[in-house]
């Protein structure tokens, strides 16, 4: 892919607001622009994975600057922040959307929310152009402390697992660490591939948020906080 084709994967959008003050301050503070491409990508991946903890936002269609301010996110909101940071340092990236089995969230969502949820919910990961190919960065969703907490809570499970925001063929040997290759942590729960999009803005134009109607109102005013309490307890091994 030549540079002219990649240009459309570098632009700022309403959600990918990488020129916002807090994102620009972070890029300068971490000195990412002075790293070579590989190190730049690795550093941003590590930041979003470990310093932006797994957590559930009140809304999904929120700008990257707001995700950064919150300090936590799930698949869709972490993807928005990751894309903004990558584009902010000149790395082309795109948004890949899916539907996943809601069983992925069993154990994390409060029971009343889980039972009321549709059978499939939206999911996404970022794909970055690196070394002349697109690389999937799904593994960025779960921080290490949370994943270790899940393993502890479940008593060191082995083999394939779906639940607690984990969807993998081997829960003891997951593929979420950045090693220059595709990373995954929820991909085995995918039920439908919705395709690639230039930006999350483009995706949300045609695909409504998971959080709508009365359920959305209840989520925004109470249940997202309750879900984050559950996530925090898992992370702390309670």
| CATH-defined architecture | Roll
Assess the beta-strand content as a share of residues: 15-25%
CATH topology: C8orf32 fold
Radius of gyration: 17 Å
Strand order of the largest sheet: 5-4-3-8
Query: Helical percent range?
Result: 40-55%
How would you characterize this protein structure?
The protein has one domain (3-235): C8orf32 fold, CATH 3.10.620.30. Helix 3 (37-51) packs antiparallel against helix 5 and helix 7 crosses helix 9. It has helices at residues 3-6, 21-30, 37-51, 64-70, 75-88, 111-116, 144-153, 200-206, 213-235; strands at residues 53-54, 72-73, 93-101, 120-130, 133-136, 161-163, 166-168, 190-197. The protein has a 4-stranded antiparallel sheet with strand order 5-4-3-8. A two-stranded parallel sheet has the order 1-2. It has 9 helices and 8 strands. It is α+β, with helices and mostly antiparallel strands and 238 residues long. The longest helix is centred in the last third of the chain and has 23 residues, at 213-235.
Could you name the key traits of this structure?
about 240 residues, alpha+beta, C8orf32 fold, 4-stranded antiparallel β-sheet, 9 helices, 8 strands, about 20% strand
Quick gist of this model?
This protein is of the alpha+beta class. It contains nine helices and eight strands. It has helices spanning 3-6, 21-30, 37-51, 64-70, 75-88, 111-116, 144-153, 200-206, 213-235; strands at residues 53-54, 72-73, 93-101, 120-130, 133-136, 161-163, 166-168, 190-197.
């Amino acid at each position: 892919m030549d540079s002219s084709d990649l240009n459309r994967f570098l632009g700022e959008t309403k959600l990918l607001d990488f020129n916002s003050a807090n994102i620009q301050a972070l890029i300068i503070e971490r000195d990412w622009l002075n790293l070579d491409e590989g190190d730049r990508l690795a550093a941003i991946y590590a930041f979003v994975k470990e310093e932006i903890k797994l957590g559930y936002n009140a809304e999904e269609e929120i700008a990257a600057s707001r995700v950064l301010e919150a300090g936590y996110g799930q698949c869709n909101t972490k993807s928005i922040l990751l894309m903004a940071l990558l584009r902010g340092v000149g790395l082309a990236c795109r948004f890949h959307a899916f539907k996943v089995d809601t069983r992925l969230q069993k154990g994390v969502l409060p029971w009343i929310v889980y039972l009321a949820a549709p059978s499939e919910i939206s999911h996404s990961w970022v794909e970055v152009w690196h070394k002349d190919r697109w690389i999937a960065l799904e593994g960025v969703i779960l921080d290490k402390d949370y994943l270790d907490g899940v393993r502890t809570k479940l008593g060191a499970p082995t083999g394939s697992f779906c639940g607690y925001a984990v969807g993998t063929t081997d829960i003891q040997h997951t593929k979420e660490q950045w090693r220059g290759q595709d990373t995954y942590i929820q991909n085995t729960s995918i039920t439908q591939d919705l395709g690639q999009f230039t930006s999350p803005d483009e995706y949300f134009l045609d695909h409504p948020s998971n959080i709508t109607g009365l359920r959305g109102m209840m989520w925004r005013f109470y249940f997202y906080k309750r879900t984050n309490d559950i996530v925090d307890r898992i992370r702390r091994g309670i």
